[in-house]
Write a structure and sequence with these properties.
This protein is α+β, with helices and mostly antiparallel strands. The protein is built from 7 helices and 10 strands. It has helices at 9-19, 46-55, 62-65, 123-138, 141-144, 195-200, 207-223; strands at 23-28, 38-41, 58-61, 71-82, 87-93, 104-105, 107-109, 145-156, 165-174, 188-194. The strands form 2 sheets. Strands 1, 2, 3, 4, 7, 8 and 9 form a 7-stranded mixed beta sheet that branches. A hairpin with an 8-residue loop joins strand 8 (145-156) and strand 9. The longest helix has 17 residues, at 207-223. The chain is globular and about 45 Å long. The two termini are 34 Å apart.
Length: 224
Amino acid sequence: MTDFAGKTKKRLKELEAKYGDEEVFAVPYQHTQDIPDGFQKFKGKAQDAIRKLMARGKFLLRAAVEEDMSFQQVIPYVLVCNDDASKFFVTLRIAGEKRLLGSLSLGIGGHLNPCDKGFMCDGFSTFMNGMRREEDEETNISEVAMDVHEPYGTVRDLKSSTPDHVGIVYLHYVYDTANLDVREKDTLEPLWMTKEELVKNYEKFESWAQLIIEDMVIKKDKAA
């Protein structure tokens, strides 16, 4: 059962000290109940589904919605791949927090902020602006990628440490894979992995990535 327990005053003050006046886009939980736990590919018109979701949310203080299941923070989550989606861009953590060393990340993404607001405050353009901003902050993708973002599905993990987040997953195709690079060269190492290599390194990925890998490769292999 979903836990909607509120934060203690002490915890709220800790989050306010951490995030200050940062605002993120969030949707009331009741408007996300049709999004299943786990990963699911889009069915029907993905843009209409994203527009509908964005129309039901607003920007709120991150400290207020963090760790609050009554709101779901919307996260663009981009899988960068080569032109035929046979290889995926992955980052390896080589420095930073000791517990994260050696871990792998598949998706590029993050919170939507007020700076992403689209023309006439259209929710879909706000989402796309935020997705592109996150990609450009983490990589040099605008220099090497085709401007083809393909909606892929939704992902959430209500059993994880971030059940108050819901991801909108896109594919982004890159034609110049050799020159795609990360911005944080001191802490991250860029890699390209086949679907088979994603499975081989499954345990090193974050939970959202694991859910996508399961659907993309593992389930298909079992069904074959």
